[in-house]
Design brief:
Elements (H helix, E strand, L loop, with lengths): L1 H116 L13 H123 L15 H23 L14 H20 L1 E2 L3 H11 L3 E9 L5 E9 L3 E10 L9 E14 L3 H6 L7 E3 L1 E10 L7 E7 L5 E8 L3 E8 L2 E12 L7 E11 L3 E11 L2 E10 L4 E13 L8 E16 L10 E13 L4 H6 L9 E13 L2 E11 L2 E9 L5 E10 L4 E11 L2 E5 L1
Parallel strand pairs: 5-6, 5-7
Antiparallel strand pairs: 1-2, 2-3, 3-4, 4-5, 7-8, 8-9, 9-10, 10-11, 11-12, 12-13, 13-14, 14-15, 15-16, 16-17, 17-18, 18-19, 19-20, 20-21, 21-22, 22-23
Length: 688
Amino acid sequence: EERRAKEVEERRAREEADRERREEEDRKRALEEQRRKDDEARRVKEEAERRAKDEAERAAREAAERKAKEGAELAALEETGRRARADAERKAKEEAERKAKEEAEAKARAVQSVSASVPTINPVPPPPPPPAAAGDLGDSLLADLESFGKREEEEQKAKEEAERKAKEDASRKAKEEAERRARAEAEQRAKEEAERKRREDEERRAKEEAEQRAREDEERQKHEESERKRKAKEALAAKEAERKAAQRAAAKGAGKDDDIEVTDDDLDMDEVRKDEKALSATARQAAREREQPPAQVTARRPKKWGKPAAVALFVLLIGGVGFLHVMPLSTAEYEKAASDAMGVPVKIGSARLSVITGIEVRFEGVSVGDTVKIKAVQGFPEVGSLFGAKKSFTRVELEGLSLSQSQIAGAVLGKVGGDNLRIARIVVKQVKLDGPLALPALDVDALVAGDGSLQSVSLRGPGKLAVQLSPKGNDIGFEISAESMAVPFAPALNLSDFGMKGTANRSGVTMSEFDGRAFDGRIFGSAKIRWGASWLVEGELRARGVKVAVIAPALVSEGTVEGRGTYTMSGSNPATLFESARLQGDFKIEKGVLGSFDLTRALQTGGAQTGGRTIFTELTGQAVYDKGAVKVSNVAIAAGAMNAGASLDIDANGGLAGRIVADVKTPNQTLRATLNVSGKVQDPVIRK
């Protein structure tokens, strides 16, 4: 009896230690969940600030471009008006000159006509001309002069009318342009306001959803903890009631008529624990009494068996409870309920029930279909579901789960509940995702909807990796953030402060946007990934403020690059995708330095001396990366008085072949030369 009591006490100590360990794990999970929520809130805030900053920069850039465009259009409009006025003045001047010439010719003809009518001087004067003839000549001259005056007045009026019309046209066009700009600005402001409201609504909804999830998690944890304590109290109360009943039965069997009343205080957990601790002392005392020789009595008295019988019955009860801790269960009902819910055969190697620290069912050797193997599953069922066909669990924890990456979509989009199986929450520690992509082991916490589908899935991994999945229909929305992320398809590119969101399904992934920091700048982009018989990756890539020296310092040693381009890559598996990569786009480098040659010096020396550096204000061009080779074309370099154009080919081994055409203006002349580029990327050579 003493040994059994000692075993019971040791078992109680172990169970108490297990309970404390579980409570510590629950506290750690709660802290981790709070940290996750804080990280999520911080990420949402940083994302909102980043988007606001990008939006402000974009708005400023668009405003500057709009002002420049408006200035150009206004200058063009003014130039058009000036040309119209100049044409009108030129035409009026030509018309005036033509009319003046015609008037002068008419006057000359009139003078000639008058001279011809005057006779030559004779000794006898001729008779005077008739008055009528003189009057006709004067009238003709006056009519001609009046005609000339009217034509000049008409020409002046036509000139003024042309100028007035030109001014009216210019004013009307300027007014229309101003109205158009006002409408465009109003539409832009309305669009920006709608976009701002949309972003605010999205941020508000995201915040509300995060807070709602936090409240639901907290309420669920409180409910589970309360339920566990209630069930433990009920189990211990039931044990105490049975113990009291056993004591009454033992007392009656010993001839006692006193009833042992079971009160509410008797069912208190603290009193039960005190009785259990007293058990070991009672058992030891009973053992000592049995070892002592029977005393010699002169009179026979009836033995009192009530107390020993009660103690023995309680020991048997404790032993029964201990047996329940490892009591085996039938797996048939659980296998059927899970198979019906998931639509594939589910096999369970063994199942056992524990009620010491709350009702728990542990399944081992679980397989789902032919491919998914789970080492152990620990479920926390509702009490009523233990003895019925319908099984209900508040939480299920999985250990030793491995999935292939091709099974992820099926696992997230599939169902884990049905008519006879209800699971509220699924927790997986360190799930392994085997496949062509190198992915770390992740912790999973999933909430299950009423129809058995996954409502939301949260994943956590190393490097503050956080993934939020939102299944909907046949698609899975996702948002990913990480302290650092190595791009799977470009192993040389590692992005810090990484963020990404998009959708996924069974056939591929669409990344609506991703961004991160690299080389002191930011890299943005989008991507579409498709898999099947072969892999295809394509999308858009943008860079801003990236240090150009990390690309080829011997060619361009200083400056920041901005660029935009498209990319595509394909292959039989992700590991070989980058070998077929093709990227093409435009780029601009501002305030940079050509690292190993001086173009101005080369021009001044006729190509005899090229060593040094070339400081430039801007360098623009187009580039194509194709399977390791690079082709740079349409390069324009502006460096004060020096301007240059260039093209350059870089083979897969770093060999250079190109040409630079440069000119520099001096006070006396313009120097021009064509220079050839050869050598290696690490050591370029410039020759005339």
